[in-house]
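User: I'm curious whether this sequence folds into something compact or stays loose and floppy. Could you predict its structure so I can see for myself?
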Amino acid sequence: MLSIIIPTKDRTEILKLTLQKAIEAIEGFEIEIIVVNDGNEIIQKIENPKIQYHNNPKKGVTTARNYGASLAQSNLLLFLDDDMWITKGTIEGIKDIRDKYDLSNNTFCLNWEYPNELITQYKHEKLGRLYIKNNYHTMLGRSGLILNQTQKIIQSNGIGSASFLIKKEVFNKINGYNEFIQFQGEDIDIYSKLKNDSINTLIYTPITCFHNDNTISTIQDYTNREYRGYLSQAKAEQQGLIQKTNQNDLKTKFYQLLLPFESIFIFIFNLLPNKKMFDTIAFKLIGILGALQKVKAYRNIYA
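Assistant: Here's the prediction. I'll summarize afterward.
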């Protein structure tokens, strides 16, 4: 019925919990789970006949996803991030999609939100409170879409590989993920290819998945991830793989002037007490630091 593909890199404990949730969800269904290890860390395997493990060291998440897809026995693929939990509702939702939609012309992202325990944790953190304020703890919040509660399916203007359902023959038709894009920008590329082939990108709106995104605990974690993401995207733009973003506007030039003061902004952020009364200042600093990572990354690539 379904092949679930999970790329992972040096996050054994997070992966272990994800697999435990997945085993519970797929019980009684004809489903295989393909874990592709892209890191150096040895996975502490959960032994289960439905799970297979393969190594793909340091070749990138796109290569890992393509490799997993090539091994899949089913003609229906579900790509999951290694911190995405699925439920029985996920599997029932996929059955509903499969029964009602032509998957030769439609792809789906399955809606998600943070689990309640993670939301509770984030309410006690400066970064976490910003995520919640900006609705970043939901898929629709991140995508900027407004959920119509009366519609089970809505049109999307992009895809997110964290919970992406696609028929294998469609995946092969568009040549899968672009392996030159190793970290961020691959979703932009695959959405563009689907659109060019007149294949719909849709969202299944019932929340059946839970994103255990608990790896950003410090401002350094946040800036490092933002920088790596923008660096990957800038490389993809430079190679003409995705559309270029404007780096010559006044806002960019303003942040270029602030680059020498990055360490000071980090120092002030860390100095701020973790109290809601200081959130306005903290959120401004996070915004500035995020913008600086983009400026640094693009300067690195285009210098």
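Summary: The beta strands are 2-8, 31-37, 51-55, 76-80, 84-85, 106-113, 153-155, 163-167, 200-211. The domain at 2-211 is CATH 3.90.550.10 (Spore Coat Polysaccharide Biosynthesis Protein SpsA; Chain A).
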